[in-house]
Amino acid sequence: MPKRGQLRVLLGAAPGVGKTFTMLEEGRRLLGNGKDIVVGIVETHGRAATAAMTAGIPAVPRTRVEHRGVTLEEMDLQAVLDRRPEIALVDELAHTNAPGSKNDKRWQDVEELLAAGIDVVSTLNIQHIESLNDVVEQITGVPQRETVPDSFLRGAEQIEVVDLAPQALRDRLSGGFVYPAERIDAALSNYFRLGNLTALRELALIWLADEVDQALKGYRKDHGIDSTWEARERVVVALTGGPEGETLLRRGARIAARSAGGELIAVHITSQDGLRTGNPATLAEQRALVEKLNGTYHQVIGEDIPTALVEFARSVNATQLVLGASRRGRVTAAFTGPGIGATVVRESGDIDVHMVNHAAAGKRFTLPPLTGALTRKRRILGFVVALLGGPALTALLSLFRSEDSITTDVLSYQLLVVIVALVGGIWPALFAAVLSGITLDFLFIEPLYTIHIHQPHHLLSLVLYVLIASLVSFVVDRAARYTRAARRSAAESELIQTIAGSVLRGDNAIQALVDRTREAFQLPGVRLMRGEDVLARSGEPLPDNHHASIRITDDTTLELHGPDLAASEQRLLAVVTAQLAATLEHEHLTQTAKQIEPIAASDRVRGALLSALSHDLRRPLAAASAAVGGLKAAGPDLASAQKRELLDTAEESLAALATLVTDLLDVSRLQAGVLTIAEIPTDPAETIAPALDELHLGPTDVTLALNHGDAAAHADPVLLQRVLVNLLTNAHRYSPAGTPIHVSTSTFADRLEIRIIDRGPGIPPEKLDDIFLPFQRLGDTDNTTGLGLGLALSRGFIEAMHGTLTPEDTPGGGLTMVISLPTIRTSQEPS
């Protein structure tokens, strides 16, 4: 069986960073060193520089696959296996093979090459890594259907990042070195935004850094290296769930910040029995603080807390360990031995340990409260067991009393004390201990029927009775306390989980909260009231209307019908009321937004039209008045040519005035609710063609690249056509003679975009916002054009259709106006 080949992956943040070029460059170098190397497949994407790099490298001919009448070219896997080179260059690891190929994915082809002992050099973009698929979609808005499993990629012997600064990549794209000219504008505005590229670059570098970290851990484990390698400062802060945690975290953050790339790691160790745990609320607050300090939070279960803490610190290659000073006093420490801090210092080895003092350190020892956590019913039951069990046991022991039975008598009464302690806690146990001591002395110890202690060991026996009763009672009380806390925490978690599940399933969040409240507290009825109105109800209120009212907001209260809640249940109730308050606020904001949206859309249209009207109405009215005045002043002596010119001016101005009045009437109808924006599925081609016909623009004036497939925009086709007429008029006006306008369409995520591209003088960046001011023409005073809607009105119409109108620089000079509208379906994905 041949030795498995090695995989080398060139990882990039985005298309165009130079992965394929670098792969071919490495192939030429290896070929020059005498290696047997072939090109399995290289995707040049029409890039001349990349195609030139393939010259001189032996290549295996591609195989052709017919699919639905289209011929597709794929790597000939069998031919490469038969050729058996030392190294194969295989581009685009995540590529999906044509239907009918041996493997569905190209990475599966590479797996066969590796299994055959052939080394492979391949390329991959960060968006095609399976575990990062959802993260990349959040950044770019584009789902990736071609992915490579992390398990396969992590098996690569070498992974290298081919890096390029985001702005440098955009410059390369603008220069036509990545995509053909018709795709440049859409790419720059969508996938290749500067923010997108920066985030993808960071993601690639972080992923590789994590791989390096894992490789370092693997190497240290394989070579049995336990010592810390201080590649960078890693500070582990140990949290107990106590109030000192905030102090420790801030100290740890300051230590980490002293070195470049320092890392803050917080850890809480929970004992396996679950008894040594911190306050959940305090831990939640400290976890939030860790995130604010750019650290990470971990929770570990360990049998021995100091050992588990040190092992965790070593596992993350920590250089510093921050602990709080012990909260035990010196008296307690003298009896219980060295604490966690001392043990950690002894076992930490080369990890520096910081013991941080805090307000709770070294507090005096206090006894637990005698009332304990047991219920009143259990304490009463303990007294009953002591009162009935004592006489019953005395009667039983009296039947078998002898001189040698004193040991059995003592142990029997001691067992009774333990049983009473388990049932009722400390007070019944102390009562049983004293009663048992007196009974023993009165009935079973010479002289009988007297209560008199002749020997010291009899007194010691009574003291031991009391001590045993106290210790057992303390254990029982503590167990009851932890049980109650665990049940309460479980109830809180289950309630929150149930509420969250109800909301995620689409249930009414407020109703779900009210229902769960009634179920959690086992109440007959719960109502959420706003004044006299019932917002939500669950169950039925009691006939006598006995209830407790809890204020949620200024005008909202929660009514709990039934018995009063115990103090221990108030915390759970606080969780519910906080959730209710947040849900009510969210619902209020949502309703307000829904109410404002149509008003805002209407205001955008009205504002755009009325602002435009203030300028456009004045100019044609003045021109028409001047023409008529000229005709009147000249009288019959005016030449026919001059008379015709004045009449044409008046006619043109009055026509423009009629258009403006029509716009004003549209706004009036819109505000009155008579004219609405008809947002329907609209094919952009069906609005572009009429707009071109209206302006009499032909193939020599405009080039088209309609790449939106069968996607349709949610838009008003009439308003959209009017916007296109305005934008095309401006583009045609400013384009150099003989240079056509370029109109293109594309889809990106859930948007459909229309681009009107000219090669005119363009607009300075600082003036881009000014062009949307009413009739701002940057010094242009031509009165023969521009009497249409204007850019201010165009933007108003587009925004009313929930879209955007954005100006951008055209690569190579000029202005690109981008209309972005909601779309029904997207079908485009960058390759």
From TrEMBL:
The keyword Zinc does not apply. It catalyses: ATP + protein L-histidine = ADP + protein N-phospho-L-histidine. GO terms for cellular component: cytoplasm; plasma membrane. Its EC number is 2.7.13.3. It is found in: Cell membrane; Membrane. Keywords: ATP-binding, Kinase, Membrane, Nucleotide-binding, Phosphoprotein, Transferase, Transmembrane, Transmembrane helix, Two-component regulatory system. The keyword Nucleotide-binding applies. One of its GO terms (molecular function) is phosphorelay sensor kinase activity. Residues 612-825 form the Histidine kinase domain. InterPro entries: HATPase_C_sf, HATPase_dom, His_kinase_dom, HisK_dim/P_dom, HisK_dim/P_sf, Histidine_kinase_KdpD, KdpD_sf, KdpD_TM. The chain crosses the membrane at residues 380-400, 412-445, 457-476. It is a multi-pass membrane protein. This is histidine kinase.
